[in-house]
Amino acid sequence: MNTHDNLTQLIDHTCQTYADLPAYNSAGKTLTFSDVEQQSRYLAQWFQQHSGLQVGDRIAIQLPNIVDYPIVTYAALRAGLIVVNTNPLYTAREMLHQFNDAGVKAIVLLDGLADKLTTIIDQTSINTVIVTAAVGLPAVKGTQLSLPELIEQGEQLAPLKAHNANRDDIAVLQYTGGTTGVAKAAMLSHGNILANAEQMNERFAEIMQPGQETGICPLPLYHIYAFTVNMIGLFAMGQFNVLIPNPRDLDALVKQVEPHTINYFSGINTLFIGLCMHPGFKALDFSQLKMTVSGGAALTHAAADAWMKVTGCTITEGYGLSETSPVATLNDFKKEEIGSIGRPLSNTVVEIWDENDQPVAEGQSGEIVVKGPQVMMGYWQRQDETDKCMKRGFFKTGDVGLQLPSGNYKIVDRLKDMIIVSGFNVYPNEVENVLCQHPAICEAAVIGAQDEKTGERVCAYITLKEPIDEQQVTDYCRENLSAYKVPKSIIFMEELPKSTVGKILRRELRK
Q1: Is residue 376 part of a domain?
Q2: Model-level pTM?
């Protein structure tokens, strides 16, 4: 892979190498690598010759996990466009901010999502609207086009003039979750994403054979985790990705997994917990499952233990952010240290800094900083924000962590989520991890609230597997936590608020 100068070369080489093998499946539809190459090439020809789009223009992709997602992504990159990954569940307000911030000129979306677009499109620079089906579309400004028809039209056009991007050219604008205010875009270059795919595949090759593995991708491709891990890294290894459009529908997910002999699974803590409680999932054949990767949120011992019991496979936790394309560290396969995020990928330097941006003493906690070829070029049109988080070539993650005696790193919590009780630091992750080890507790989220006596107090929000009362939870916490870490408020809930990826949203609980 290090022979590639850009993602276009990677796409071409991969599709040629594994031409006859299956590349993607979704909702019963399977495409081979040859199909992917052909359809993305025809669409890229249409982009180049008929869309009016120029090299460097931004195109929003607002789709769930269907086979059209990789087709559009690869076509856009082959035509020299910049991909703006967009959550299909965004509100019109969120869409308007992102599209104007990125200066989006074209969008590809499901026809069922066109209603929201209609309400804001006149306030954007979008001129080209492409849908996966042209049935029953509301009237919108610009061109209403059917994706299958454009692929057919592209087939009749002159051959594609391959766009030869440099490694420093922007490939993707990846918007961060916006938890610290207005969402901003990490500028990820061809070189950033290529480097990260190469770094990951170096580790994956220890356990996987190129062109021989089938994997389940339940996390959305608009999220940087699945985008790089599945749609670039595993794709480049010639692996077969089974895309799950809606992972919240566990019954449908199980039916989609059932026909396949699965070798790898990528997921997130909450999904692992939900699946391990699902009777249909427990009945599946896991005899060939050899790799399960977790990211996006802290992996709990409870989830790792349940997954091992149900599938017989360990979970390998990694760590990264949109700004690191995303993967910075990964546990060693079959030697996982649960509760740690593993060791840095090749060519990646991780340090722990104090509040003065200086390395801390060995074993002490501080802010995790990352340096490597996968670190973003900066934030799109936000030099002020870039300057705040980039120091001496390192990206300041905002996560508190430490290095363990094993050499692996551990996340303690987000800097902004830390609770200070009478001058003592309380990290929600630690309290949540303890709570989730109680046999009656399913999930937990911990936040701080103002307190006249102690400055802040610890509040726990909990969902249950079986009945338990507040006093039992308190007694259990007192046995396992220092007094200042024990939750003073315990709230039982039917369900915790979560992002579309399944990450528990503490900020929603603060409201």
Answers
A1: no
A2: 0.88
